Amino acid sequence: MITKKAYAKVNLSLDIVGFREDGYHLVRMVMQSLDIYDELVFERLDEPKIEVLLSEDTKDKGAASSAPADKLGAVPLDESNLVYKVAKLMLEKYVRRRDPKAGVRIILTKNIPIAAGMAGGSSDAAATFKGMNELFELGLMDKEMMEMATPLGADIPYCIMGGTALSEGIGEVLTKLPELPKCTFLVAKPPISVSTGEAYGGYDKMIEAYETSPGSYSDFKHPDVDGQVDAIYAGSLKGVTDLFGNVLEYVTSKNHPEIKELEQIMIEGGAINSMMSGSGPTVFGIFDDTEKAEAVRKTIEEKGLANQLFVTVPV
Ligand code: ATP
Q1: CB 126 within 8 A of CB 156
Q2: Residue among 25, 36, 55, 114 to mutate when testing ligand 1 (max atoms within 8 A of CB)
Q3: CA-based diameter of the chain, in Å?
Q4: 187 Cβ closer than 6 Å to some ligand 1 atom
Q5: Catalytic option among 9, 110, 189, 292
Q6: In this structure, how many other beta carbons lie within 10 angstroms of the beta carbon of residue 218?
Q7: What is the DSSP string of 160-195?
Q8: Would the CB of 10 count as within 6 Å of ligand 1?
Q9: By C-alpha distance, which of 117, 131, 169 is closest to 147?
Q10: Considering the entire predicted model, what is its pTM?
Q11: How far is the C-alpha of 158 from the C-alpha of 174, rounded, in Å?
Q12: CB 295: neighbour CB atoms within 10 A?
């Protein structure tokens, strides 16, 4: 039996810089993993089947359910779960050649907010590559697993790498960056789910409108991703937070005003800065003082603006 942690990520910046011929968006973003994680337990089975189950703990919390795959905010337990897809790929490509009866049971404990811009599914997939690699003693290098992962999801290679990284291409071109200076994150997930596809679609429509009438989008700007990378190399937390920016925030926060409200509460409560992660709706703030972060957590809890809240650190 093998246990793996799957860490959540946030984006410290997220820019869209173009399109690939096949329609994928080309991105430039700074990724940071946080000490918020799902847990996956892997067990060999002597029958050729793949079982993906939710732990009792996860079921009790009601954070996930065996809902149909298309239900946002729930973890599907069928073939559409990324954990299942990775397990199937690894079994078919490597294991069943020598052991046709090999199977696996994977028990998932879900803590990462779902459909929230924190790459929960991608991170579970990354942990499954690593777990399967160890359980079946395949001896694969991270680089090999990262290459195999891209067609399943562009954020999975980053989740295999973890830490602080610049992500380019469709998300699969990665540059490892130095660690962030010591700091505390407050993460707040409002009680709504956002589909990544819809957020990107909304961005395309917004850009079309922006090109015909830029005046009506006077607050729109692309983030300075290179400047933020320089600030990370310089070890300047203020430099990093001054250059927070996420082009998808224009789309998601228009539909969900509570995002701006959360950011304002965090800043008023002493965050150095605050922004939305990925396609949202999760909002995070960076603090140089954990007590301030805890106090803001309490304020947000009392106002009922988030159903999942974490005070955490980068990993
Ligand atoms: P990203 O930040 O990469 O856009 P996200 O946080 O917005 O990701 P996820 O939590 O990964 O979104 O889930 C998006 C959808 O993926 C869910 O609605 C669910 O149907 C599906 N999904 C597939 N596998 C998983 C998994 N292991 N955990 C959670 N969701 C999964």
Answers
A1: yes
A2: 114
A3: 64
A4: no
A5: 9
A6: 7
A7: HH-SEEEEETTTTEEEE-PPPPS-EEEEEE-S----
A8: no
A9: 169
A10: 0.94
A11: 7
A12: 14
Instruction: Please answer whether residues 82 and 89 qualify as being in contact, where contact means their C-beta atoms are separated by less than 8 angstroms.
Output: no
Q: Which atom of ligand 1 is nearest to the CA of 81?
A: 24
pLDDT tens, N- to C-terminus, the chain (315 residues): 999 999 999 999 999 999 988 889 999 999 999 999 999 999 999 999 999 999 988 876 654 444 444 466 789 888 999 999 999 999 999 999 999 999 999 999 999 999 999 999 999 999 999 999 999 999 999 999 999 999 999 999 999 999 999 999 999 999 999 999 999 999 999 999 889 999 999 999 998 888 888 777 777 899 999 999 999 999 999 999 999 999 999 999 999 999 999 999 999 999 999 999 999 999 999 999 999 999 999 999 999 999 999 999 999
Q: Is 293 in a helix, a strand, or coil?
A: helix
Structure tokens at 94: 């490597």
